[in-house]
């Protein structure tokens, strides 16, 4: 109910005058099936055109996927040109968080279309040093203060549990709300011999020290296998956590001149970033 169709439509123009609306209003359905022929696949067929895939990425806003609860949910495939967002889970959010969750889901699912997995170039989730909104650990919020990390992570490795998601609440938990893709600058973390001291997850952040196993001291080497790796539906042990240069992958898809952006050579002040805008344009990918 909070979607204003005109805000999501693109227009072709001649002499500054719109000649064709780029978006369509899909007939409302309470639920949409995953099925390729009768569900979301049928919508993809009806409302997208392959001959425009070189220029457009299609976003489909539906109410809820059949068989799923009403939590916010996105669906996308790597290296494709269309994705879907289920909106029902956002109905009870405050206005500011409603916009924030739309932003999160749009940018995350678009990342899949731009060939990014939950671990960058691998299907490994919850990697601490993969400081990207594609990572489920950071998909709702990327805290930008080291104290917050240190407190949140304390005890995470004591029973092998996965780190909690950094999710904003309806209270005024808007401190350092931040989203971005990774620049691929973090060092490898050995999960079999992980130091609790000076954990580096991004060169934009100071190193983090936290009592990960909650034994009352800071250890130089602990076993802490937090990341989840999957080959299809089969889980496997992750022995090291690797960062990935999302932006280098993204430029292969969206920059006309693919040689104009060497991410690793840029300083933090000149790297591309995601910027949240007004409700009229929820997020934009820009190059400084």
Task: Describe the overall structure.
- The protein is an alpha+beta fold.
- The chain has 4 helices and 12 strands; from the N terminus they run E-E-H-E-E-E-H-E-H-E-E-E-E-H-E-E.
- It has helices at 40-47, 95-113, 146-153, 246-254, and strands at residues 11-14, 17-21, 58-62, 73-76, 82-86, 124-125, 189-190, 228-231, 234-236, 240-241, 273-276, 283-286.
- A 3-stranded mixed beta sheet has the order 3-5-4, with helices on both faces.
- A hairpin with a 5-residue loop joins strand 4 and strand 5.
- The longest helix is centred in the middle third of the chain and has 19 residues, at 95-113.
- The two termini are 35 Å apart.
> Which percent bin holds the helix content?
10-25%
**N-to-C SSE string, H for helix and E for strand:** EEHEEEHEHEEEEHEE
- Pick out the low-confidence regions: 1-5, 277-282
Distance N to C terminus: 35 Å
As a whole number of angstroms, the C-alpha radius of gyration is 20 Å
Look at the structure and give the mean pLDDT.
Answer: 77
Sheet/helix structural class: alpha+beta
* Outline: globular
Q: Report the β-strand fraction as a percent range.
A: 15-25%
Order of the strands making up the biggest sheet: 3-5-4
The total of helices stands at 4
Count the E strands: 12
Biggest beta sheet attributes = 3 strands, mixed
Provide keyphrases for this structure.
4 helices, single chain, alpha+beta, 15% strand
Précis, in short:
By secondary structure, this protein is of the alpha+beta class. It is built from 4 helices and 12 strands, in the order ββαβββαβαββββαββ.
